[in-house]
Structure formats: C-alpha cells, structure tokens
Amino acid sequence: MAASARRIIDEQSQVLEIWDRLAKPGLHRGKQIVAQCLEANGNMIGEPSAVLFRRRNSARGFDEKYRQIVDLEMWFHLLEQGDLVYTQEPLCSFRRHPLQLTAFNQANQIGRNEATMLLLDYCWRPWVRDRLSRQALFVQLYRGRKRGPGPEGAQEVEKELLRCWGGGGTPPSGSTGKSPNRSLTRANRSRSMPREDSCADAIGGLAPS
Question: What residues are paired with 85 via a beta bridge?
Fold first, then answer.
C-alpha cells in the first residue's frame, strides 16, 4: 500500500494546511501502522484519494457496518496483508467544506461509536495487544463515558475491552479473532444518512492487480 501527505483546501481551493500525520517517509510495517492508528484514535494514513493499493488485496470489499471510518477499516485489512510506503510530499488535495459527508456525519452523530467498534474488532489479535499501550484502552473508555448514556450494551462493551487487555478469556467470536459488538453496530446503522458512493468509487482508481 502507498500513501502521501495531502493539502487541505477550502471551498476556494486555498491551501489551509498540510496533513502529514505519519511524518516519516519510507517503508512502514503494516501492523505497526495499525497499532499507531489505534493508539492515536484516528486515521494517520489518509483518505481514499490519498491511498493506492492492489485491487486483488481488496477483494473482500468494505465492511458495511462502518459508515464514517469505512476507509480506515479497509486500510487495517490491507495492512494485515503487507506494509505501507509513505511520502511526505503532498500528492493530492482534500477539500474541506460544510456539505461534505464528514461534516454531515459529525452533525448527526453518525459513526460516533465506530472508533470503539474498530478497537473491539482488532484488540483480540495477539499482534495488536503486543503493540498497544493501555492508553488506547483508556481513551476509548474515557470518550465513551464522556458521550453520556450510549446504546444498550455499553457496559458490556467496556467489560469486553477490559477483558481483552486483561488477558482473560477468549475472543467472543471464536477463531476469527474479532469481537464485533452488536449493540454498537445497531446504533450506528439506526442513524439516517445520505447515500454516498465516494468510497466505493475509489476502487476504480486502484493500482492494477
């Protein structure tokens, strides 16, 4: 997989800033980048327009239970299969404006639980637990409580995260190593949002297989 820094521009195409969260060019181990994103509680790689990968590695498709960070979940899937090459040279621009899908999602609280969902999906993988500090767990618990009363089953989510980091028990979904929380997924899908094909359309720009 390959990614670059990008220019953030406004509605008049004026450059506002440069996003360069990885801040280190060259080859990065894929699983280490996954851990860094979970630790930072954010996407350090980039949006679909800033990323290239081989079509055959994405044959699984996007995970439909994610609506806001669907691209980041795909990057994790790809980085389990290989590494990342990154350049600090901005090779594309990302426009920030009030009508973009991210702004709509934030205003309507769509995807507010997805960072926790993603951590739950990955925390049972041994290589993730070996690389993450307890700070990642604390951030998710703190943010979840700060949001106030959440969906039914929020306490079970906290217990599952604590159990994962405590090393007790086995992944609830068995051999897959995933522990998706149904309550969070139902709450995520219950919020209405417009249909957007931007992420799906990104497949058309992938590097050849």
Answer: 2, 27
Same domain, 185 and 116: yes
Query: Quick one: 94 and 156 in the same domain?
Result: no
38-57 pLDDT, tens digit each: 888 889 999 898 999 999 99
Domain end (from 108, 142, 161): 108
> What is the tally of helices (H) and strands (E) in the chain?
9, 5
Q: Which residue has the higher pLDDT, 66 or 86?
A: 86
pLDDT at site 153 = 53
User: CB of 48 within 8 A of CB of 202?
Assistant: yes
Domain span holding position 86: 1-108
Looking at the DSSP bridge assignments, the partners of residue 52 are 2
Mean pLDDT value of segment 88-94: 93
Give me the sign of the Cα torsion angle 111, 114, 117, 118. Answer: positive
CA distance 200 to 52: 14
14 and 87 inside one domain = yes
Contact 37, 44 (CB under 8 A): yes
Other CB atoms within 10 A of residue 179 CB: 22
Q: Which are the contacts of 84, defined by CB distance < 8 A and separation ≥ 6? A: 1, 2, 3, 27, 28, 29, 30, 33, 45
